[in-house]
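INFO batch 0412 | record 1 of 1 | parsing
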Amino acid sequence: MSQWQQQPGDRLTRDRIRRWHAAGWILFGLLPPAVAVLDASQARRYWLLGLLALIALCHTVVLARPDNPVLRPRTYLAVLALVLGATSYVLDGGAAFYVVSLPQFWLFTRAPRDAITLSGAAAALTVFGGALGQGWSPQFRTGNAVFTVVAYVAGVGLGVWVHRFVGRSNARQEQLTTELAFTQEKLAAAYQRQGAAEERERLAREIHDTLAQGFASIVVLAEAARAATVTDPVRCAEQLTSIERTARENLAEARVLVGSAPESGVAPGSLATTLRRTLDRFVQDTGLTVTAELPDIDLDQRTRVALLRCAQESLANVRKHSGASTVGVVLAEVAGGVELEITDDGCGFVVEESRGFGLDGMRRRLAELDGELAVTSSLGDGTRVLAGLPTHSQDRP
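INFO prediction complete | emitting tokens
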């Protein structure tokens, strides 16, 4: 039972058992001898009541202050054994009082050896006290002696079994606690790895949608500028200006990604205005025909960023892969949400065979905001990209 004292919750449980036992001990241990001696001689009555008062006082002190320096639990149990022997002598038998008091030898000791030794001493004193009251030729095989010995043997067996049961339970609890701590550490590490993977994925998506697209534009513009160096100096100058502007924008996006800028590169304001600037740049760089329907719609910042990135990715795919001559962009407010549609009259592709990072990145970005991406295309029939997002969330900085 010593393991019970290792945990605060276990100590609380043991204290409760002691209190309940104290109530039963007073009711069934102290009161019956006190009532039984009322009809005895005055000397016997005073002696027994004094012994009962003494042991009751000692029990109260140990129960209330088990760490007091005067009456330690082992000392109290020694006093209890003497009182049991004296009570047995006064009453010519004290087996019942011994049985009721027997659990205390297990509750107030730390090791089974101490409980067995002290309860054995109490049993011997109880038997001896009861036999001594019979004179110089006691008959030890009395009901008092037999009942006391049987109670002692049963108490030892039950106490050892309970001690081992509690020991195994505590060992199992300690094992489970260790396993739980280990599992929590593994779970925390898994969450950390998942967070790191999600952050890497987010950075990869942001780099692809901003820096990579910007560098691709710079490459295309540089090739065009080099081709126009001799034949069209004015066009070459325009291309160089576009290269400079794209490089500056990429630098701003890089600062955002490394944390030196407070917000996304998308400035607060109307998505329609931002898309018009993007389309103007697209027309200037590619010479394609663009038609646009861009009404002003009040959207939160995350929705504006997501739709703008989808538009940028779609336009980059048109530039690199479609061979289109005309592009259409439509921004529309629908019931409970907003949709952005980008179409082109290019060569198209087989959607199921597409393995590009751009489309997957757009799907994930929209999914994070409970949105969806629908891509419709076939060879020779152009491409339609439809991005939809709900607008029930409030504007967040």
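INFO post-check: DSSP finds eleven helices and five strands in the chain.
INFO record closed
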